[in-house]
Amino acid sequence: MQINKAGTGIISLKFEKIAELSWEAEGLLTRMVNNPKCDYVTAETLHKMFPADSLETFQSALDELVEKSFVFQQNEKIYSVNKVKMIQEMFYLGSDSKDKEICNV
Fold it and tell me: Quick one: CA dihedral 34, 82, 22, 48, positive or negative?
């Protein structure tokens, strides 16, 4: 996967996978894969970074992501993105992508 050096792209779930996750889990996963500061963190750290949602909302989304193997739980508190599943079930859409008009519909 080639990353746009300007940083104008985003990693997102493939369209056929979106219905498998709640809005909260999808949003958290998007944050975790696109922001390195959101990988290998605790629920408490995520809550401090994004305080608009409750700690319970983060924990529930993390539990869902662990259950569906998008995220690994380590040491009972640390969560990290499953990079293999990310490659299999997500895609990178950069500003220079030839199919961006189709993907943004």
Answer: negative
Tell me the pTM: 0.79
**Structural element, H or E, at residue 20:** none
Name the residue ranges covered by the structural domains of the chain. 10-95
Average pLDDT, the chain: 85
CATH 3.40.50.720 fits 10-95, yes or no: no
Residue of 89, 76, 84, 97 lying closest to 26 (CA atoms): 89
Token pair 């990353």: residue: 3
Sort 5 into a burial class: Cβ within 10 Å, 0-12 / 13-18 / 19+: exposed
**Contacts of 98 by beta carbon, 8 Å cutoff, 6+ apart:** none
